[in-house]
Amino acid sequence: MTLPHLLHAVRETVRISAPTVLDATLGRLTPEVCDARLERWSQRLLERARVELVTSGIENAPRDEAFIVMSNHQSLYDIPVVYQALRRRLRMVAKKELFRVPLWGAAMRRAGFIAIDRSNRAAAIASLEAAKGELERGTSIWIAPEGTRSQTGVLGEFKQGGFHLAIETGARILPLTIDGTREVLPAHGKRVRDGVTVRVTVHPPIDAVAYGNERRAELVAAVRRAIESGLEPNAPRPSPPDHDSSVLPMR
Q1: Considering the domain boundaries, does residue 172 fall inside one?
Q2: What is the mean pLDDT of residues 183-200?
Q3: In this structure, which of 48, 108, 158, 234 has its CB flanked by the most CB atoms within 10 Å?
Q4: Any domain includes 11
Q5: Domain coverage including residue 13
Q6: For residue 153, with 0-12 CB atoms within 10 Å meaning exposed, 13-18 middle and 19 or more buried, which class applies?
Q7: pLDDT: is 70 or 23 the higher one?
Q8: Binning pLDDT at 50, 70 and 90, where does residue 206 land?
Q9: Does 244 reside within a domain?
Q10: Is 242 inside a domain boundary?
């Protein structure tokens, strides 16, 4: 059943990407329109893969506050999962390669997603300034501090950019643990396994300003401990079997 899954994912992605680019060109794109499209897209992708999403701790994320959301990163399916778990205005800081995907990448830019080029310091700083602007407008910013998907499920080294942003803006960090998406689609995997239970744990926010630049290493460690605490067990899961699957048209 790979082909029907693939066609469904492509259709849903085009369904939100094409009108987003068109609306932006005509000057009628709004954050509310983007929010609604991302909600439908993420819901339909998870429904098609029969992902059972279990979210705990959502009371830790009051809707009247904009956060810097930080999570572990195991799969491309983290994207629809986080949107469905938090159900709020949220934009990603994502590696520049995602913005090269035809149509999808253009739609991401028009919707307010932020491309980061870690090989270019000036461009990376500009990206963080754009994220700062979104926070000031009440949009939560999602950053995966590992910078890439984990190959094994074990947390990688954290990049510093998001922590600088939190300290500079005063936005609290909302740690998030995603557990199970690696079984749906592992890093660099080609097939999607249906019927997996994915658990998202929303941890209490962490005040970056209370740490400041002088104690930034302690801040990084505190966020890392929070994210790790939601992994059960705190060890990589075995690679998922390659069956009952589809391909997600984003890489």
Answers
A1: yes
A2: 88
A3: 108
A4: yes
A5: 2-229
A6: buried
A7: 70
A8: very high
A9: no
A10: no
